[in-house]
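re: the backbone from monday

yeah here it is again, tokenized this time
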């Protein structure tokens, strides 16, 4: 019996592949980069054929470096919910429309008028916003009707690459859920909404849970790459869900805080409880869900402050900021530099630095950035508490979590111990673990347990938490006081 799984992540800036063993070891890791296409204001597109070419190149590398007789299956993770129109031959008809694409403003407004928004939220767990699929599909109907007429399937990023690998069309249920066209409790398409778009259900492949075997690697791909034919390919997994799984978020009370360009929050729960301040996903484990939030800016503000101070040496800035204690600078920053998604959903909100005086230096500003993101995470924790959930353990991931200072600030602000797994390869290992769990009998998440055993436990400081609680209350009050002023920043002549 084999003991290696392949995980391939279709990311915003590249395709990454790993090979992981049942012992939790990564025995292969490689990637190929690609670019976002934005040739008009608000457009965010990518070339799905480039993803597939990169996937084939990575499979060719794997075939040359890994003993493929040990491979039990292939799994994909990726961006969600991307929209790809696929033709009869399996080729993308046009560039993908990405999840952060903002072209369909008119269509969004129309659907908000057409739908009972409270009822729609209750049925789907979504609001009508720029992320869901159907306003973008409506835009295509109006602006590129020939492309829609040629479409055989509508797919997402990781589903598309699995389709090219197997020839079998399928959708993963978190793509369906985040499309906004899926009834979350009944787990079927919202037929009334499909008719209002209109979008034929025939364009939507069958929907499966992550880990379900959808097909096997084809002879054609084997000839092209040297990677064997007949290897099982399982239904994929959304990148943020894969990341949560691969950092240990499995039981109710587990919370993942991702310190990336944006700040992601994922909390495991055994019950479906919807709240308009947060998003919801299916957990890959049965009968579980992931409540999730996304702060529009996190690491991107760190990049902004380093560019502003003309010092991109993160280590030097960190060393300077470490000399300050919580509250020493008496600066409160609001991290809403790109507006904000969860939990306030305020596109008018903007970044604010409150409490400046002439004695402040770049270290004070830099530390205020790190603290502001941590305050945003705590806001999410308080929303979870209002819903009756208790955080039992915090996990930290992504690039910002490599900073000992930032990790400590986040845990001190939130008021919880945490775990960080060094050298975490990201979402692709979650996809590989899903393969191992479904393809190796009696596996019982052995690879995940072995991988997580390498995690570093970090304790929070109760004293720092008390100090930060004072400044956190100012953080919350500051936004509420400024909220009515943000829209006035835009001058509108009479």
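seq for it, each position gets an aa:
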């Amino acid at each position: 019996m084999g003991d290696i799984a392949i995980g391939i992540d279709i990311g915003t800036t590249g395709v990454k592949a790993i090979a992981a063993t049942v012992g939790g070891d990564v025995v292969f890791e490689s990637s190929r980069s690609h670019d976002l296409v934005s040739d008009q204001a608000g457009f965010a597109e990518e070339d799905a054929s480039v993803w597939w070419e990169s996937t084939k190149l990575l499979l060719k590398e794997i075939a040359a470096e890994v003993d493929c007789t040990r491979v039990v299956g292939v799994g994909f993770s990726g961006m969600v919910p991307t929209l790809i129109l696929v033709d009869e031959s399996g080729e993308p008809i046009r560039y993908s429309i990405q999840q952060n694409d903002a072209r369909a403003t008119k269509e969004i407004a129309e659907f908000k008028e057409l739908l009972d928004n409270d009822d729609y939220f209750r049925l789907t767990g979504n609001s009508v916003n720029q992320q869901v699929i159907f306003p973008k599909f409506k835009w295509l109907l109006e602006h590129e009707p020939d492309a829609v007429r040629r479409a055989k399937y509508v797919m997402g990023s990781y589903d598309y690459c699995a389709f090219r690998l197997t020839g079998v069309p399928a959708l993963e249920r978190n793509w369906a859920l985040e499309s906004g066209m899926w009834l979350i409790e009944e787990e079927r398409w919202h037929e009334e909404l499909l008719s209002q778009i209109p979008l034929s259900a025939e364009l939507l492949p069958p929907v499966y849970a992550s880990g379900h075997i959808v097909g096997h690697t084809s002879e054609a791909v084997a000839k092209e790459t040297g990677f064997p034919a007949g290897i099982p390919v399982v239904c994929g997994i959304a990148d943020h869900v894969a990341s949560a799984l691969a950092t240990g978020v499995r039981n109710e009370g587990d919370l993942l805080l991702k310190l990336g360009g944006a700040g992601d929050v994922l909390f495991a729960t055994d019950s479906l409880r919807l709240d308009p301040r947060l998003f919801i996903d299916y957990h890959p484990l049965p009968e579980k869900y992931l409540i999730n939030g996304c702060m529009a800016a996190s690491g991107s503000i760190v990049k902004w402050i380093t560019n502003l101070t003309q010092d991109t040496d993160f280590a030097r800035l960190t060393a300077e900021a470490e000399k300050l204690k919580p509250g020493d600078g008496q600066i409160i920053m609001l991290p809403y530099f790109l507006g904000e998604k969860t939990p306030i959903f305020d596109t008018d909100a903007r970044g604010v630095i409150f409490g400046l005086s002439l004695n402040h230096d770049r270290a004070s500003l830099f530390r205020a950035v790190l603290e502001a993101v941590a305050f945003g995470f705590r806001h999410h924790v308080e929303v979870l508490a209002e819903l009756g959930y208790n955080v039992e353990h915090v996990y930290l991931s992504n690039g910002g979590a490599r900073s000992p200072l930032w990790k400590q600030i986040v845990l001190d602000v939130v008021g919880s111990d945490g775990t960080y797994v060094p050298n975490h390869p990201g979402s692709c290992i979650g996809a590989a673990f899903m393969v191992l769990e479904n393809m190796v009998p009696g596996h019982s998440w052995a690879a995940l347990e072995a991988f997580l055993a390498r995690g570093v436990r970090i304790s929070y400081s109760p004293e720092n938490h008390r100090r930060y609680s004072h400044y956190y209350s100012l953080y919350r009050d500051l936004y509420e006081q400024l909220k009515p002023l943000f829209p006035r920043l835009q001058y509108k002549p009479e």
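The mean pLDDT is 94. The chain has two domains: 4-240, 248-420+461-494.
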